[in-house]
Amino acid sequence: MRTVLGNLVLIVFLIGCTTAETQDKSLSNNFDHTYAEYAILLKAYVADGLVDYDGLKSDRKILDRLIDQIGSADLSDRSEKDKLAFYINAYNIITLVSIVDAYPVKSIMDIDGVWDKKSWHVAGRKLSLNQIEHEILRVEFSEPRLHFAIVCASIGCPPLAGTPYIADALDKQLNDASANFALNTDYNRLDP
């Protein structure tokens, strides 16, 4: 009787583990590549490329959910444009979190190790901002316009877009980001 009961407990335990594992895998495969929550965050706290860090810090629930979603995302069956949009958005979201975590801070450069010492879970890997930019974005994608889309949260950097980058609109979004930066006299001037 003890053996039967022991086996029954073991079977229930294994079913529970398998169910939890399946649910975890299902959650990672259900990543929202329309970035609906990120769009809500951007609409609420970003205007003309400037971020309301006070507001974002006081209401960071969405930001925390986005970080969790980025960490568990499964990109194995996604298109190259989906992956590029994902890593651009991940970089920008992690930059926002880094500043909010240290806020109030005068400059992102005042945050020790923000680009190379701090790491985050991103699509199942532990990555720093530098790794996302220099080992993934610049190496895996042949896309020079991405430098106008990833935001280092510094005055000299391109402004943060008011909408998430998504695969279906990525070419237009990258063209717009590039043109907006190149034509903005706050960043570029021709001195004859």
Summarize the structure.
With 192 residues, this protein is mainly α.
Secondary-structure blueprint:
Layout: H1 2-29, H2 36-45, E1 46-47, E2 50-51, H3 53-58, H4 61-72, H5 80-102, E3 120-122, E4 125-127, H6 129-140, H7 170-183
Antiparallel strand pairs: 1-2, 3-4
Helix pairs in contact: 4-5, 5-6
Shape descriptor reads: globular
Largest sheet: 2 strands, antiparallel
The helix/strand class is: mainly alpha
Helix and strand run: HHEEHHHEEHH
Describe this structure in words.
- The protein has helices at residues 2-29, 36-45, 53-58, 61-72, 80-102, 129-140, 170-183, and strands spanning 46-47, 50-51, 120-122, 125-127.
- It is mainly α and 192 residues long.
- The strands form two sheets. The chain has a two-stranded antiparallel ribbon. It has a two-stranded antiparallel sheet with strand order 3-4.
- Helix 4 (61-72) packs across helix 5 and helix 5 packs antiparallel against helix 6.
- The longest helix is centred in the N-terminal third of the chain and has 28 residues, at 2-29.
Highlighted features:
about 190 residues, mainly alpha, two-stranded antiparallel sheet, two-stranded antiparallel ribbon, 7 helices, about 5% strand
